[in-house]
Specification:
Elements (H helix, E strand, L loop, with lengths): L6 H4 L3 E7 L7 H12 L12 E10 L2 E10 L2 E9 L4 H16 L4 H6 L34 E13 L6 E12 L2 E14 L8 E17 L2 E17 L6 E20 L2 E12 L4 E4 L2 E5 L3 E13 L1
Parallel strand pairs: 1-2
Antiparallel strand pairs: 2-3, 3-4, 5-6, 5-14, 6-7, 7-8, 8-9, 9-10, 10-11, 11-14, 12-13
């Protein structure tokens, strides 16, 4: 006796959720078509009643576009695969479509049921995985890129408090070498002269700052958290005294500097920073035996500028 069976009734219905957060990626319909073509049947015909869901999310991190392929049952995530592209989003979505088709039909059994009668039957004793997450799944995906070095050159305008007798402004020029999440920055800085508010018999003092710094950073995307070691000289000059007197004293400090970089266009970034600096030696200015300024223990600086990234 020949009994016909409705293959579709035995196949679970799936819902396809596609979230592309990057530009230049294929549409939901294009990705869905790739999955259906790889499976040899359409598991999304009954999406309205489906409890099984295939999620494909596309986004970018600091190393480029990635795809997250998830299987969900009744709203609960049962696992995921993360794929990374070496070139563009089209290549990435092709790999994600393959991964999604494997999650839906890991052994190809459902596709064989819908194949023409002339198609060869599966070999006797062929294994069948009841749960695709319980067996290893090989995904043909782009190779993960090797770590690469990046070089950055930038400049920032600075505004500081606690480094001079009055709020000061300056300019910093820095260069950075980055490998994966580790970045090392070298910096030179100069602050414009600032005059003290206190005067002695009509005479006053102005100061300027010249420093160098090294800052090891942990970088993730556009965010950086840096430690800072700074050293240099505080230059002082008397005003209202003839002849003018000049002096210099050593300057040193350690601190913390969060930074945020936002891409403007191509390799050009807008960079903002804030910094707290602990002064390792107290600075004081005297004029005619009277102290006209002494530094606080902690100084702060805010910066805004641009940087160019050389891959």
């Amino acid at each position: 006796m020949l009994v016909a069976r409705d293959a579709c009734a035995e196949e679970p219905a799936w819902r396809f959720v596609y979230d592309a957060q990057t530009d230049g990626c294929p549409s939901r319909g294009q990705v869905l078509s790739q999955i259906v073509a790889r499976l040899g049947f359409d598991p999304f015909r009954g999406e309205a009643e489906a409890t099984s869901e295939l999620w494909i999310s596309l986004r970018k991190d600091d190393r480029g576009p990635i795809a997250v392929v998830e299987r969900r049952e009744d709203g609960k995530a049962l696992g995921e695969r993360v794929l990374r592209a070496t070139s563009d989003c089209v290549e990435l979505t092709a790999a994600a479509a393959l991964a999604g088709s494997i999650l839906i039909d890991p052994t190809g059994a459902m596709a064989r049921r819908e194949a023409p009668r002339s198609a060869p039957a599966p070999e006797p004793g062929a294994s069948r995985a009841e749960d695709p997450w319980s067996e290893p799944v090989t995904i043909v995906a782009p190779r993960r890129p090797e770590p690469r070095l990046g070089f950055l050159l930038g400049t920032r305008a600075l505004a500081s408090a606690g480094l001079a007798p009055a709020p000061s402004v300056g300019l910093a020029i820095d260069a950075a070498l980055r490998r994966d999440h580790l970045e090392v920055r070298l910096e030179v800085r100069g602050d414009l002269p600032v005059e003290s508010e206190r005067r002695n018999a009509g005479a006053g003092v102005s100061t300027s700052l010249l420093t160098g710094a090294v800052a090891p950073c942990w970088a993730s995307g556009g965010l950086r958290l840096c430690g800072v070691l700074m050293a240099g000289a505080l230059l002082a000059r008397s005003d209202g005294i003839s002849p003018a007197e000049r002096d210099a004293t050593a300057f040193a400090g350690v601190g913390v500097r969060p930074m945020l970089a936002t891409r403007l266009t191509g390799p050009l970034y807008l960079v903002g920073s804030v910094e707290g600096l602990l002064l390792l030696r107290r600075l004081a200015l005297e004029l005619r035996g009277e102290e006209v300024w002494s530094s606080p223990i902690v100084a702060g600086t805010a910066g805004l500028g641009v940087a160019v990234l050389f891959p």
